[in-house]
C-alpha cells in the first residue's frame, strides 16, 4: 500500500483541486467551440491547450517546474523555480508578443478601403466609447483605476491590445482580461447582430453605399508613414503597437520587401499567436482565474462590447444627418476592430435584408480604423494611468 | 450610491473619458484630414497626367521617321474595317480608352502622311 501511496504522491492527481478540474473543463470547452463552432479557432485552440497545461498540478523535473508557473499563488521568481512556460510568458509580461502580432497584422492589412472613404475612419473612433464607459463601470464596482483601465480595453475588441495594456496596468488580471477579450472576439457573430438590429430601422439596413474609388500605390505607401506620425505624436504611448502595425503595412505596400511581408503575415504571426495563446491560457490557473474579480471582468467585458457596438452604429446614424452620401449604419459596428469578424457580421446582417447589398468592403474601413483607435486608446490610458 | 459616485470621482472617470475619447477622435480626425488631402493630391496628379496639354512624362518623344510613319499607317489601315477607310481609326485593338496624350501622339504621327494626300 505504501509504494502505491508514494506513487500517487508523485502524480499530478495528488495535488489536483476542483478548481483545476473546472478550468480543465473550460479549456476543453474552448477547444470544442473552436472545432465545432469555428469560433476563432486560431486563438481558442492554443488558449484551450494552455488552460489544460496551466492546470496540471506542479510537475517538477530536475528541480524545475515544467508547465506550472505558480508557486504559492505567485509567478515563480526564485532560482530553480522557473518553468518552460515562465520563459514563454516573458513575451506576454513584457508586451513583446502583442507588438509582434501587430507587425504581422499590419502586413496583412489593406488600407485601400479606408483611404477610399476617409470619413469612415471616424466610426473607428466612435466605437472606442465602450472602453471609457466600462472604465467608469469598473470604477463603480470598486476596481482601482489601473485595473479599471485594463478592463475597459476589452471593449476595444482587440486581444493583443488588451494583453499589452493589462501587462502594464494590471499584470495580476492579465489572464481573465485576455481570455475575456478573446472570448468576446470569438462571440462577435453572436453579440453584435441583436444590438445592430435593435438600433437600426429596416430602411437604414437597406442603404447601399457608393463603390469605393481605386487607390493608387503611392497613396498606400504614404498612408502608413503619415498615419504613424499623426497617431504617435498625439499619443506616444501607442507608438509600440501603432509603430509595429504600420511597419508591417509598409513591408507589404513598399513592393520591394515582399519576402519579409510574406513571412510577417504567415509563419511569423502564426508562431507568435501560438506562443501568446498557450502562455495566456497557461496563466489562467484555478488560483488566479476562479475569483469573483474574474466574473466581474467577464460581465464588464460584455457590457464594454455592447457599448462599443452601439456607439459605432449610433455615430454612423449621426453622420448620416450631416452627410449627402448616406452610410449604412451597420458598418458602424465594425469600428470595434475584431478584424475581420466585425466586418463580416456587418455584411451578414446587411444581406439578411438585401442579398445584393455588399457591405464587407465598406465595413473594412471602420474595422481597420478600429484597430488604430483601440491602440490609440490603450496608449492614452497608459499615459494617464500608468 | 454616494460611495459609487465617490469611487468614480476618485478614478477621475470624467477626465480619463474626456482625454481618452478626445485623444482618439483628435488622432482619427487628423488621419481623416490626411487621407482626404492625400486623395485630393493623388486625383489632381492623375487628372494632370491625363490632360492632352500636359507633356508625357520623361524626355520628349523623338520625331518619327518615314519608316515609322509608314508602319503606323499600315497598322491603322489594317485595323480599320472596309467601311471605315475614310476616317482612319487610330485605336489599337483591345485598348478601350487610350490616354489623351497617347491619342494625341498617334494623331501627330498620322498628320504628315495624310496631308500630302489631301493636297
Largest sheet of chain A: 2 strands, antiparallel
Into which percentage range does the β-strand content of chain B fall? under 5%
Strand line-up of the largest beta sheet of chain A: 1-2
Low-confidence residue ranges of chain A: none
Strand content of chain A: under 5%
- Count of helices of chain A? 20
Radius of gyration of chain B: 31 Å
- The average pLDDT of chain B is 66
- How many DSSP H or I helices of chain B? 4
Which consecutive residue ranges of chain B, at least 5 long each, have pLDDT under 50?
Answer: 81-96, 113-119
Measured by residues with Cβ under 8 Å of the partner chain's Cβ, the largest interface is: A-B, 45 and 30 residues
Question: How would you summarize this macromolecular structure in one to three sentences?
Answer:
The complex is a heterodimer of chains A (386) and B (119). In chain A, 70% of the residues lie in helices and 2% in strands. Chain A has 386 residues and is mainly α.
Highlighted features:
heterodimer, A: about 375 residues, mainly alpha, two-stranded antiparallel sheet, globular, B: mainly alpha, 2 domains, 4 helices, disordered C terminus
Structure description:
- The complex is a heterodimer of chains A (386) and B (119).
- Chain A is an all-alpha fold.
- Chain A has helices at residues 2-10, 18-36, 41-54, 84-93, 96-108, 112-116, 121-126, 129-140, 145-152, 159-169, 174-186, 188-199, 202-205, 217-234, 239-253, 258-283, 286-289, 292-322, 341-353, 360-385, and strands at residues 60-61, 64-65, 70-71, 74-75.
- Chain A is globular.
- Chain B folds into two domains: 2-50; 66-118, no CATH class.
- Chain B is built from four helices and no strands.
- Chain B has helices at 2-10, 13-50, 66-79, 100-118.
- The longest helix of chain B is centred in the first third of the chain and has 38 residues, at 13-50.
- Chain B is rod-shaped.
- Chain B starts with a helix and ends with a helix.
- The chains are: A mainly alpha (386), B mainly alpha (119).
- The interface between A and B is large, with 45 and 30 residues.
